[in-house]
Automatic annotation (TrEMBL):
It comes from Friedmanniomyces simplex. GO terms for cellular component: nucleus. Pathway: Nucleotide-sugar biosynthesis; UDP-alpha-D-glucuronate biosynthesis; UDP-alpha-D-glucuronate from UDP-alpha-D-glucose: step 1/1. It comes from the Eukaryota. InterPro entries: 6-PGluconate_DH-like_C_sf, NAD(P)-bd_dom_sf, UDP-Glc/GDP-Man, UDP-Glc/GDP-Man_DH_C, UDP-Glc/GDP-Man_DH_C_sf, UDP-Glc/GDP-Man_DH_dimer, UDP-Glc/GDP-Man_DH_N, UDPglc_DH_bac. Substrate binds at residues 48-51, 106, 159, 225. This is UDP-glucose 6-dehydrogenase.
Length: 429
């Protein structure tokens, strides 16, 4: 269409992430359709913004790439585009390179970011096996400035519309250039991501005594990351898919994702009848958590964080006197089955339960409790975790797929907390 209506030379700017060689293809298409004497310069100018931080990324980009054919006319076109960015981007951050480098650099950047996440996620499995703590590991490793700390947050798996697509696009390019070793190297980034989601889902099943049938599990967060309602390739889709397959009843709350979107996404992995029967989408966290035996955090929304809770929650004296209090620290997943005696209604279990059910109201009347049930921190909404604990059923498991809660604080409220890349299971009762 552009070629048909253009009456003067044009610069066409490719912003999307495209297969390498697209600019070359476009050039051929334009030259075959354009009126004689007209010239179309195709520039590659890939977009690097991330959802949730788009405006900041636009205003303060790390770099702007402008790829061109490199001849004098093309360099002139690249200069014209660079002049637009010069209005707010320092000149040294505008990099002019060749077309293929620019298209490949965009793919490579996303692949290397995804690779960092898969690297730390693969190490999280090793941390759970050995007793290392993946957050400590990421911090320690990241202090080496050659490595850096960003994109090293372990999670239940990366999502979003781009990482998987772009890694697989690189795999395809490598295959089509007969580079199978290169292709299989990058393919492993996606494989590890699938492994991580699968591993996390299986951990939930294992901790609930290998049966989820008709157990209510609450999922907090459905978007692929915070500050967006986008659910494309969200790890939540796969993980909830596992829970449905295990016949759990799943209640979902996300502050930004609409019910119809959640249902549509889950219908990609399960039949509509199974989704209708097993899934409910809730308006708020509290109704989602009522009567649940486990809560699973899948998006790192700020409202789920625990920074409003005091370092050490006040605990009623008789709670500290329970015989289990001194013996139940640092149990691994596998040792949980021993602990399941508590789940069969032992008197101490019931006593603990009664204590916990009273905990929220105790807290909301004491002075310290006032700070605990604060629902806002610096104007930001926070979940009242004591209220969640009192509304849940035993064993009050909490699976933090984003490592955003402080496990000791929630353990003090009666949760048994499982984090990514930490062997220790946190609970106090
Ligand atoms: N969403 C993001 O944060 C970022 C996206 N990008 C890249 O920008 C591009 C667009 O991303 P989104 O806006 O998120 O995608 P999107 O899926 O929301 O929009 C893509 C649009 O292109 C249209 N489309 C798809 N194939 C087409 C075809 N063959 N011919 C004509 N139209 C077609 C679709 O109908 C849709 O309207 C992608 O290449 C993506 O990798 C780059 C950086 C950030
Ligand atoms: O090409 C694109 O579309 C964009 O893809 C990503 O941006 P985006 O997918 O929006 O979000 P990220 O912040 O990169 O997160 C991607 C996924 O990885 C997860 N993640 C991120 C960082 C981390 O340390 N750990 C981790 O699990 C996020 O939760 C999310 O699920 C890149 O960061 C952008 O630079 C790029 O422009």
């Amino acid at each position: 269409m552009i070629a048909e209506v253009a009456t003067s030379d044009k610069i066409v700017v490719e912003k999307s992430t495209v297969p390498c060689g697209t600019a070359d293809n476009l050039r051929e298409v334009f030259s075959s359709l354009a009126r004689p004497g007209l010239r179309f310069d195709i520039l590659s100018n890939p977009e690097f913004l991330a959802e949730g931080t788009a405006v900041n990324d636009l205003l303060a980009p790390d770099r702007i790439l402008i790829g061109s054919l490199g001849d004098a006319r093309a360099l002139e076109a690249a200069e014209a585009l660079a002049d637009i960015y010069a209005a707010w981007v320092p000149r040294e951050r505008v990099i002019t390179i060749n077309l293929w480098s620019s298209e490949l650099a965009k793919l490579a950047a996303n692949c290397m970011l995804a690779q960092r996440i898969s690297s730390i996620n693969s190490l999280s499995a090793l941390c759970e096996a050995t007793g290392a703590d993946v957050d400590e590991l990421a911090h320690a490793v990241g202090q080496d400035r050659r490595i850096g700390t960003r994109m090293l947050k372990a999670s239940a798996g990366f999502g979003g519309s781009c990482f998987k697509k772009d890694v697989l696009s690189l795999v395809y390019i490598a295959e089509s250039h007969h580079l199978p070793e290169v292709a299989s190297y990058w393919k492993r980034i996606v494989d590890i991501n699938e492994y991580q989601k699968d591993r996390f889902a299986k951990r939930i099943t294992r901790c609930l005594y290998n049966s989820l049938t008709n157990k209510k599990i609450t999922v907090l967060g459905f978007a692929y990351k915070k500050d967006t309602g986008d659910t494309r390739e969200s790890a939540a889709i796969t993980i909830i898919g596992h829970l449905i397959a295990e016949r759990a009843r799943v209640a979902i709350y996300d502050p930004k994702v609409e019910e119809h979107q959640i249902v549509r996404d889950l219908q990609q992995v399960h039949k509509p009848e199974a989704v209708a029967e097993r899934v409910s989408v809730c308006e708020d966290s509290y109704s989602a958590c009522a009567d649940a035996c486990a809560v699973v955090i899948l998006t790192e929304w700020d409202e789920f964080k625990t920074d409003h809770l005091p370092e050490k929650a006040p605990r009623p004296r008789h709670l500290m006197e329970t015989p289990l209090a001194s013996t139940s620290h640092a149990m691994s997943d596998d040792s949980l089955s021993d602990h399941s005696k508590m789940e069969t209604g032992s008197s101490s279990g019931e006593e603990n339960d009664a204590v916990l059910n009273g905990l929220a109201s105790t807290l909301s009347t004491s002075d310290t409790a006032e700070s605990m049930s604060q629902l806002t921190v610096s104007g930001k909404h926070r979940l009242d975790w004591a209220r969640v604990a009192s509304a849940m059923r035993r064993p009050r498991l909490l699976f933090d797929g984003r490592n955003i809660v402080q496990p000791d604080k929630l353990a003090a409220l009666g949760f048994r907390v499982h984090c990514i890349g930490k062997m220790k299971q946190h609970f106090e009762l």
